[in-house]
Amino acid sequence: MADGAPWYETFFDADYLRVYDHQFTPERAEKEVAFAERALGLAPASSLLDLCCGQGRHAILFAGRGHEVTAQDLSPEYIDLAGRAAAAAGVTLRTVAADMRAIPFEGEFDAVVNMFTSFGYLETEAEDRKALEAIARALKPGGRLLLDLVNREWVVDNYIQNDWHSGNDGALYLEHRELDLVTSRNHVTFTAIAPDGGRKELAGHHVRLYTLTELIGLLAGAGLDFGAVYGGFEAQPYAITTRRMIVVARKR
Asked: What does pTM read for this prediction?
């Protein structure tokens, strides 16, 4: 944390986009959006909220498929990137810079999507529940939520403390993980080594990893009924061996 600010207020900047740029391919985003559309049973021109939208890579594709899309993120910088990318793509986005616990809509959306493990950021389970309650308020009766999360069981089964990858910017990113089994939080930090040898430490992210059972209980407490779970964007069955845990729930 910097100056006492939560990690999620400081980590999501240009450094984050560089760390994960190798995963932000157009092909991946297209596949994820097509799957979400099917899993949610979206009708044409549905109203949809992309919550924690980042730079808007999913929101823009949903809008391009004819849906009425609102993109919300805590980062004004990312909201600006999303707005400019939407204009370049010739689609319309309504954008909101706000915390996920403070969705400024009620009974507005047919669906909400939360992609790329953007849930579990907050300090306590009670705060995560507030985010789900805000989602439930924003949905129309019968509206649906899709949560795309890394699978905790896969993380435990494939735990590697130190890893690295080459970025599209030519830098080498060293990744250090500390999985706390008491709190079920995965603490991940990065060291970026530039092509000229320059070194930069990145604070990283600290995400609560929920089991499916825990998540179903949280959803129920927020007025959302569990509907289905998938292990990936090809609709594979959820299992210990699947890297993703994609949950679909419905507002009562």
From this structure: 0.96
